[in-house]
Amino acid sequence: MTFLQILIDGFAISSLYALGAIGFTLIFGVSGVLNLSHGAIMVTAAVAAWAVAGNFDVGPYWGAAAGVLASVVMSFATYLLVVRPIQTSRRIAREEKEIFVLTATLLWGIMVQEAIAYFFTSNPKTVRPLVAGVINILGVRTPKQEIVTAVISLAVIGLLWLLINRTRTGKTLLAASINPRGLTLLGFELSTIYLYVWGLYGVMAGIAGVLLGSFLGVSSDNIGQLTASAFSIVVLGGLGSVGGSLVGALVVGYLETITAYLISPSIRTIPVLLLLVLVVYLRPQGLLGRR
Questions:
Q1: Helix (H) or strand (E) holding 132
Q2: Which pairing describes strands 140-143 and 134-137: parallel, antiparallel, or unpaired?
Q3: What are phi and psi of 36, to 5 degrees?
């Protein structure tokens, strides 16, 4: 029975982690930015969904929509107010801009964390589930929201795959990740492409944040952990590799679930960190990274 519970919970958590991590990977692959405010954007979505649904009594669906919208706004704010001014600055040496962006997004995330704690307290908040009730799976009582979380996460990932591989816009994003200079020579505006990808990222992070809030609950104190989890997954799978992020999410999700059930929830992240150190030492490019 415990094995089946781990299998179900681990799959739902892994699917959710994959959705968040692929958004993180998308930003890095196209714009070259490791966004260390990733967790802050996800928590903003969850808190916005919780606040709108609770204070205005509009139901969980409108609350979820408000959460995704808040995430998109935060995503654009991160790019336009934090990332882009550094990338376009003439006062910062080109080789130093990456570390400036890393530091700036980290500080931005901390600012958002403190703002959420100030206005909404740091107490855990649970978003109203999209689907209430429980379902019996081979004798294991599982919340329907847990199944919905896995289905929506995988559906969004599937839609992203179709967008990237079956549309002109997606192929443009692929070209931007491979040869941005060549793309500009063909007449494309990189600034427009970056705005598009940050908007797409905001939608994915928002959906992941709302689902996380309805599945496990979140607080401002979770921001650092969520960013670390996404970073661990993309490094484990290989920076810039979408397939690697999927594999990394499965490994991290199940490893955390097994640790929580069989040892203690308080140390669920420790085995993941140890595995990450091992992978970085033996295979620095990640499991599916090319270099």
A1: none
A2: antiparallel
A3: -85, 10
User: Which residue range(s) make up the domain with 218?
Assistant: 23-223
Q: What would the pLDDT profile of 36-47 be if each residue is shown by its tens digit?
A: 999 999 999 999
Tokens coding 188: 């494309």
Angle between helices 190-215 and 168-178 in degrees, nearest 10: 100
Residue 290 belongs to some domain of the structure: no
- pLDDT tens-place string over residues 226-255: 898 888 898 888 877 788 889 899 999 999
Q: Is residue 232 part of a domain?
A: no
- Is the Cα torsion angle 181, 187, 192, 198 positive or negative in sign? negative
Q: Which residue in 118, 127, 16, 28 sits closest to 70, CA to CA?
A: 127
How many DSSP H helices and E strands does the chain contain? Answer: 12, 2
Instruction: Please name the residue that has the structure tokens 């958590």.
Output: 13
Number of domains in the chain: 1
Listing DSSP states for 102-113 in one string gives HHHHHHHHHHHH
Which residue type sits at 135?
A: I
Q: How many CA atoms lie within 13 A of 53 on its CB side?
A: 25
Residue 268's nearest CA partner among 218, 239, 220, 229 is 229
Domain membership of residue 278 (yes or no) is no
